[in-house]
Every structure is written in C-alpha cells, then in structure tokens.
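Re: that backbone. Tokens:
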C-alpha cells in the first residue's frame, strides 16, 4: 500500500513545500544542524536559532573548534544541551576522520556521536541523495494512520519496522524529497491532537484510518511514566552590580552550565538567611521572587525563588559560588531556560 503514496506525496510536496532557510542550501552540515534543532523546537522558532548558529559557525571546522561556553551560549534557548555537545564531538571526529566533510555513508553517519537513524537518514537522503528513510514522530504518525498499525510507536522495534517499510518503497531518484514530503505532511496536514486536515491530504484515498474513521486513535502510545518532581529553593544573591552563579557538575542534567544557586526542598526565610551567612555574606534584604516550574523529559522542577541583597563585598568567590557582573553574564555565562522566571532579577536593577 505504501508504494501508492509515493507519487501523490511527491507531487503535493513540489507544490506545497514551505520555504525554509536550510532548504535553500542543503549542505550536509546545514541539514545536520537544522534536523538536530528541529528535534526539540518548532520550525518558526528554529529559523532564528539556525541563522545565529550558522553565521557564527559556518563550517564543521568552526563547530569543532568552538569554545564550549560560546557553543552553549549559541544553543541558549534550545535546551537539551547534550545535543550540541554531541554535535561538537561529532564535528571533531569528522575533522579527524573525514577531512571536515560529513561522510556520504548512512552507516558511518550513524556511528558519529548524537546521530541516530533519523538524522543519519535525513543527511544521507537530503544532502547526498542516498535512499535511506528518516523516521521521526511526524512520520510515525502519518504511516501508522495510513496503515492502521496498532503497535506502540515508542518502541524501537516499531520504528525499525517502519524504516524498513519505507526503505522498500523509497524512490531512488528523490529519496530526500520523499522523506521531506512525509515530514512536511506530518507537520502541516496530518497533525496531532485531533486536528488532521484529511480533506486536503494528498494520500487520503489510501489512508485506512480515514476510511474507517479511526484517525483519532493513531498513533498508539503506551502511557508514559510519571515525571519525578523535585522541589527547589532558588536564590538570586545580589552584591552591588553582581550576582552569584554556580557551575553545575560536568555530568548529568544541564551539565557544565551555570545556574542560580539553589537548594533541594523549600527552605524558609530563616534557613535561607543562615545558608547565606554560612557563606560569610551579610544579608541586608530578602524578598519573595515567586514560584516557577520547569519541565524536563523525566523530571519537573518546582521552584520557589528569593531575591537577597547582601552587604558589598570585593570577594569574587564564596564557597562554590562566583559573583559575576550583570552585563558580563549576558554574553559569557549561559544560564539555562529553567531559571528563566528569575532572569529579570539578574537583568534589571532592584
Ligand atoms: S487522510 Fe488524514 S489521517 Fe490519513 S494521512 Fe491524510 S491527514 Fe493523515
């Protein structure tokens, strides 16, 4: 059945594809960066991040040589910082092993850090014209609806099965356009949450779910595990024009990024003041900075923030905290979006 969708999809793609910056000049490097960014962020938002990143680091060599702090700063706002760290590791490998060019080989691409079957398929097919599938959540949704496949799409075996089916029908002369047409259909027509626009779908006549009125039932997903909730007290400690930050450990969640000082659990004001005094600082003023929530894939942070002004000190380092200048911090110390609710206390005068 999937053979039948190839031609109508390609024709529809030719007539309806969106003009996107990475489609203007689909070099392997451009396809790679855009696909990694698109894994976590909407197309509209990716446009400006993509422009900033490719201007600052136009070639694989620039990515390989970029200082980590600058790299994380360029990724700021996109989250999932491990992805850009892996991209840099892969870029270094590409410089060392492949003379700065991403290999035109699906299996070799798969071996690079952070490149899974989706990205390897996208780079192979779009940039090099190699007939390999690129199956992401959009494509899984489209195919399970067309074929009324009841298997759990979160299972790796299911993804492999669909990759195999697509590999069999993929047109050898336009593999990149075929992959993009499926992604595009999933992003603009066969959309999730009961909003599928079947009436304008180019493959509606071949779609089993549409024929049997079961579109809303696909794709099937096993219920997710509940996220762990972590309660935290976040402190914005201000010393004149400086504020305190802390470098996170080099492994784990938000590894290597700077953060606002924080403590596990909800501390009361007395506990906070005694923590600050324990750092040999003299608190002058404490105020509520509000509550905030940040959701990671497996954890939720529930935060209560406090703004604390301390008596002026020349010390730059207290305990494991460092004081940095407000202006300096903007360009130099990437603070993750998880602390976004407290950013105004850093950027404005209080
Ligand atoms: S007919 Fe509807 S459900 Fe089927 S592929 Fe098209 S948009 Fe998706």
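Recovered sequence:
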């Amino acid at each position: 059945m999937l053979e039948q969708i190839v031609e109508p999809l390609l024709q529809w793609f030719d007539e309806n594809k969106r003009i996107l910056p990475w489609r203007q000049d689909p070099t392997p490097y451009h396809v790679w960066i855009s696909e990694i960014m698109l894994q976590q962020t909407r197309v509209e938002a990716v446009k400006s991040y993509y422009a900033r990143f490719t201007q600052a680091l136009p070639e694989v060599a620039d990515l390989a040589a970029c200082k980590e702090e600058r790299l994380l700063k360029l990724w700021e706002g996109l989250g999932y910082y491990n992805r850009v760290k892996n991209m840099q590791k892969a870029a270094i490998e590409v410089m060392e092993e492949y003379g700065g060019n991403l290999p035109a080989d699906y299996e070799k691409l798969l071996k690079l850090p952070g490149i899974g079957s989706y990205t390897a398929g996208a780079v192979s097919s779009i940039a090099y014209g190699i007939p390999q599938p690129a199956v992401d959540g959009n494509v899984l949704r489209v195919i399970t609806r067309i074929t009324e496949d009841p298997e759990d799409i979160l299972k790796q075996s299911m993804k492999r099965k669909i990759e195999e089916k697509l590999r069999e029908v993929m047109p050898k002369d336009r593999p990149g356009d075929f992959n993009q047409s499926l992604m595009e259909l999933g992003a603009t027509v066969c959309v999730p949450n009961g909003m599928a626009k079947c009436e304008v779908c180019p493959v509606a006549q071949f779609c089993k779910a549409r024929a049997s009125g079961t579109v809303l039932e696909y794709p099937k997903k096993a219920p997710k595990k509940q996220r762990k909730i972590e309660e935290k007290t976040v402190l914005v400690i201000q010393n004149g024009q400086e504020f305190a930050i802390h470098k996170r450990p080099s492994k784990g969640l938000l590894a290597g990024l700077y953060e606002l000082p924080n403590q596990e659990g909800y501390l009361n004001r007395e506990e906070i003041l005694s923590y600050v005094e324990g750092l040999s600082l003299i608190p002058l003023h404490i105020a509520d900075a509000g509550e905030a929530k940040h959701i990671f894939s497996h954890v939720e942070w529930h935060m209560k923030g406090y703004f604390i002004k301390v008596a002026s000190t020349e010390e730059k380092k207290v305990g494991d905290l460092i004081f940095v200048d407000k202006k300096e911090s903007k360009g130099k110390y990437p603070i993750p979006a998880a602390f976004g609710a407290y950013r105004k206390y850093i950027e404005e005068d209080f």
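Residues 2-217 form a domain with the Endonuclease III; domain 1 fold (CATH 1.10.340.30). The first strand starts at residue 228 and ends at 239.
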